[in-house]
Structures are given as structure tokens and as C-alpha cells.
Design brief:
Radius of gyration: 22 Å
Order of helices and strands: HEEEEEHEEEEEEEE
Distance between the termini: 61 Å
Helix content: 10-25%
Structural class: mainly beta
Strand content: over 45%
Length: 271
């Protein structure tokens, strides 16, 4: 005999829609569906600390990136940098990075610029490493979020490559040990149904030689990307990176161990 509670439970069971296997698949075989230009704000904050976690200074970079311009071009505008002492002092006034105003290049499904070419950043000062990172990180977020739908299955890690050595002209060398992507679920951003893709790469060797400064260390980086299921548009992304290394400044005979942690958010602006 069914009790009242059992009957109610059965009604709930049969009234609840069951997700089909079709609803847990990703868009296959199509490129990003751009409906005109779209502008994003990329904010990245760097915190430099000693081995005891005592923060000695912070830097915040903010830039506006617009994609899907005519001809497949993208452009950077309104890039600024602000600095602060210690862990809690307020940031000073942002200083505009004029050399990035209007910086543009081609990035589309059919043609992309070689951002590691020796002359790609020819208008940048040699020491503008953080500004280069804005470009490289944006390229990474778009690649991880938009180019691997065919490779991803729910809750199954996917390794894009075992080892990847990168030569950064005028900056140094970086090596990705093992990049892991994982489709971890669905969510909504900006009123849009999204796939949430987690990415990570740990124990990556890093060498920087720039402006008389030398850094030898390692990098861990990770984050999440919200990608529209219907269009492959990036709706939101996060970035965290922890760098630990030996730093030698110009005029110093011995190196000091430093930790640099950075946190970034990549989000569309209302167009």
C-alpha cells in the first residue's frame, strides 16, 4: 500500500524533467559565432611578496580588448597601470599605457597573428612585460575556451600536450609542463547558458631576462572559463598564477627569492 508520502514522491519523480544525454554535449564542428564587435575588460592584479607571504607591492593592469572587428582584427584601448605599496595601501592614480592605445592585429578562425614573433610587439618598451601578458593571456583564454569543444567530455580531464616550450622574444622562456582542461559543468553568465571549463598547468619552468633583471623560477596557473553553449563566446573567465623564483636586480651580486601572485578577471562590457 502506498502511503501519502510515497505518492507525493512518485508525483515529484515523474513531474521532474530528466536531462537527456543530448543536453550534456558541447557544440561541435563550428567556429565562434560573432554578432559584430564585442569588447571585454581584462583586469589583472599582481602582488609581490617574500617567502613569508609578506606583500611588498601591488600592480593593477586594466585593459579593453575588442574582437570581431572588420577583417578579423582585434584592438586594445584604455590600458592603464596603477601601483600600491604593501598589502593594504590604496592604489595610486592609473597611468595610461599610450603605446598600447589602438594596438591591433588579426585574430580570427582563419588567420591569427604570431604573438611570439620577434617583431610582434615592436612598439612596446622592452620592459613592458605585464602589458605583453595581457595579450598572451587573452589568446590563452580564447584558445582554451573556444577551440577544444570536440575534445571535452563532462568531468573527464583532457591534456592538450605533454610539454610545450615557448620562446618569448625580449622577455625569456616559458615551458608548459602539462596543460589540463576539464568541462566541469553548466552555469549562466550574462543571462546565457554556458559550459564551465577549468584549466590548469603546474610546475612550469620560467626564465626572464629583461631590463637587466633576471628571474629563474617556476609557475603554477589555473582558472575557469564560462563559454556560451550556443555561440562559443567567452562570457567570463578567471586567471590565477603563482610564480616563485630567484630574482637578481641590476647591480646586485646575489639573488633574492620572491613570490609573485596574480589574479585576473576577463569579462564582456555592455556594447
Amino acid at each position: 500500500m502506498h502511503t501519502r508520502s510515497t505518492a507525493v514522491a512518485l508525483l515529484v519523480l515523474f513531474a521532474t524533467p530528466i536531462l537527456s544525454a543530448q543536453s550534456w554535449t558541447l557544440l561541435q564542428g563550428t567556429s565562434v559565432k560573432d554578432n559584430g564587435p564585442r569588447t571585454y575588460r581584462f583586469t589583472v592584479e599582481y602582488s609581490t611578496a617574500n617567502t613569508r607571504g609578506e606583500i611588498t607591492g601591488r600592480q593593477r593592469l586594466i585593459g579593453e580588448y575588442t574582437r570581431a572587428l572588420p577583417g578579423g582584427n582585434v584592438i586594445w584601448k584604455n590600458v592603464t597601470e596603477a601601483k600600491a605599496d604593501g598589502a593594504t595601501a590604496p592604489f595610486g592614480p592609473p597611468e595610461k599605457r599610450e603605446f598600447m592605445e589602438g594596438f591591433h592585429y588579426r585574430r580570427s578562425a582563419k588567420e591569427s597573428a604570431d604573438t611570439m614573433a620577434a617583431d610582434f610587439f615592436k612598439g612596446f618598451p622592452p620592459t613592458a612585460v605585464f602589458e605583453r601578458n595581457l595579450v598572451w593571456d587573452t589568446e590563452m583564454i580564447e584558445d582554451f575556451g573556444q577551440n577544444h569543444f570536440e575534445d571535452l567530455k563532462l568531468n573527464q580531464p583532457y591534456h592538450t600536450r605533454s610539454t610545450q616550450a615557448i620562446q618569448m622574444p625580449g622577455v625569456g622562456n616559458f615551458q608548459n609542463r602539462d596543460i589540463e582542461l576539464e568541462w566541469v559543468g553548466k552555469s549562466q553568465r550574462n543571462g546565457t547558458d554556458c559550459a564551465v571549463i577549468a584549466y590548469s598547468a603546474f610546475f612550469n619552468p620560467l626564465q626572464i631576462a629583461n631590463g637587466g633583471m633576471a628571474l629563474n623560477g617556476r609557475s603554477h596557473y589555473w582558472g575557469q572559463i564560462w563559454v556560451a553553449l550556443a555561440t562559443k563566446q567567452i562570457e567570463f573567465a578567471t586567471l590565477q598564477e603563482d610564480v616563485l623564483g630567484e630574482l637578481k636586480l641590476p647591480g646586485q651580486n646575489t639573488a633574492q627569492v620572491i613570490s609573485v601572485f596574480r589574479r585576473g578577471t576577463f569579462e564582456p562590457l555592455a556594447n
